């Protein structure tokens, strides 16, 4: 079930952080895990200020999407539940709420690039992420 979190509890935030760290480490083997760990405090502080939609069962959050206005700051699904359509459902929820969306994704994260293209996102431009020295795509989606 997908729901919007309006008042995030410490338990929810802790679970989102676990999913965030594990997903980034899994999807970005080309970036050291130390990079992600060094951003934990920053992300923990930012999440309660973002628009967050979670996919959860009765007792556990399995994935989430974080939006800042029309920017997808992240879409993450627990590794054990990937490939079950959870990410697609979370993205569909964001598309229902917004007329257009934008995101950035590393070129080397080919699985994510393919996923977003399958969800009607188009590549707007390519740029260098100066923090990681990795090439990333800026992708956009517009409601039809």
Automatic annotation (TrEMBL):
Q: Which InterPro entries match?
A: Acyl_CoA_acyltransferase, GNAT_dom
Which PROSITE patterns does the record cross-reference, listed alphabetically?
Answer: GNAT
An example of a GO molecular function for this protein is: acyltransferase activity, transferring groups other than amino-acyl groups
Lineage: superkingdom: Bacteria
Query: Can the keyword Ion transport be found in this entry's annotation?
Result: no
Domain N-acetyltransferase residues, every copy: 3-144
Instruction: Kindly state which keywords UniProt assigns to this record, in alphabetical order.
Output: Acyltransferase, Transferase
Q: Note whether Isomerase occurs among the keywords.
A: no
- Any idea what this protein is called? Acetyltransferase
* Source organism (scientific name): Pseudolactococcus plantarum
